[in-house]
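Justification of computing resources. Each target in the renewal requires a structure prediction run like the one illustrated here; the chain below, 278 residues long, is used simply to show the kind of job we budget for.
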Amino acid sequence: VVQWDTWDKTRHFPTIEEEPLVIALPFDTSLVVIPDFLIKSEIFALQQATLPGALNYEQPRRQVRNPDGSFTHFNERHKEAWLCNEYDYRDTRRVAPPRVHVGQKLSGKVEEVLQRAAEAISAPLNGVMCRWEPPGVHLKDGPHTYATHCGWGKETVIGLMAVGATRVYHIHGIPWYHGRGRREVVALNIPLKEGLLIALGGPLREKWLYAQPRDEELLPERVQFTLQLHADVEVQKAQHLLASPHPEAFSASRIRENSCMLAQASNLSAQQRSSEKN
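Resulting structure tokens:
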């Protein structure tokens, strides 16, 4: 485990063939970086299973609140698909009802990757939000608060992955300082590359914002995944009542407490991937 103040001096993320890394961020939050989690054949299979056509994507129309109290409506450039067998997904930022993503069936390669990711980060996961971005310039998105995400516990663990073009996933803390009154921006940019698994765990809804900076480069299409434990009783599917765990049943602080176990599990996953390559 590397403390934030130590890692902040170099800001080095492990590359392929390097060992997984656990970073102890401020605000009782942990970041797990597992490089080379997926091999090329798995990346291709995951991409084919999640492109438009393989999944039913929606292009949400959302709203943002202006300083004067009014709202601005807009269509997202990206599209979204929610995969979960137990729950639909409430979208509180949508302009008009129904403000719900219908949960599509988890199966095949997506379900396999979700289960492996849960084992690698020692956290239960039951849903995947897929974000498809078309080719071209990728617009700035955010910052957003995690607090608008329904179905999450007070402490939350999420996994982040992507197939296609690499794009930065940015997080920064609330407030923008920590420690003994020092004004210090707690922020980092995570390059979401193919094959990489990121896990972020802690009081995300209370302490962190996230965004994706504008990318002027003309990039090919990509799909970004947010893996999560989702349990929202208001949109639970009838056939799965009481069948899945509530987010509060798992404390994200276990990521830090069991960091050695996480590193060992991550190393094992990397070794398994390496043996498959050979």
